[in-house]
Amino acid sequence: MDLLTTIIGFVAAACTSGCYLPQLYKSWKTRSTGDLSLVMIAALAIGTSLWTVYGVLQADVVLIIANIVSLTLLLGILLFKLAEFRR
After folding, report:
1. Using CA atoms, how far apart are residues 69 and 51, in angstroms rounded to an integer?
2. Fewer C-beta within 10 Å: the chain N or C terminus?
3. What is the pTM assigned to this prediction?
4. What kind and span of H or E run contains 34?
5. In 19-60, where does DSSP find H-type helix?
6. Coil, strand, or helix at residue 33?
7. Residue pair 42/78 in contact by the 8 Å Cβ criterion
8. Rounded to an integer, what distance in angstroms lies between the CA atom of residue 12 and that of residue 6?
9. How far apart, in whole angstroms, are the C-alpha atoms of residue 52 and residue 17?
10. What confidence tier does 1 reach under pLDDT thresholds 50, 70, 90?
11. CA separation (Å) from 87 to 31, 68, 73, 74, 82?
């Protein structure tokens, strides 16, 4: 992979992974995820996990890092969502 391709991949990854930060921050601040669908969050987490495996199989560092970051943020949101069920 050449440098330009890698840079484009990391910028794209920052944009797509970073979109979860505002939702995670709001969930943390309000302790509420009532507007979020559990099925949607779970489906995104499963899809992101599979993309991570695909990145490993393809030996694509950009895919691996991007999806690990996304999955980490999604799991944070998922934990807040599951915590609401306990209340």
Report:
1. 12
2. C
3. 0.85
4. none
5. 20-30, 38-58
6. coil
7. yes
8. 10
9. 13
10. low
11. 11, 29, 22, 21, 9
* pLDDT tens profile 2-50: 999 989 999 999 999 899 999 999 999 998 888 889 999 999 999 999 9
Task: Kindly state the tokens that stand for 42.
Answer: 């779970």
Assigned token pair, 57: 């199989």
In the structure encoding, which two tokens stand for residue 26, read together? 């709001």
Q: Let me know how many helices (H) and strands (E) the chain has, helices first.
A: 4, 0
44 close to 74: Cβ distance less than 8 angstroms: yes
Q: Residue 18 is encoded by which pair of tokens?
A: 């970073």
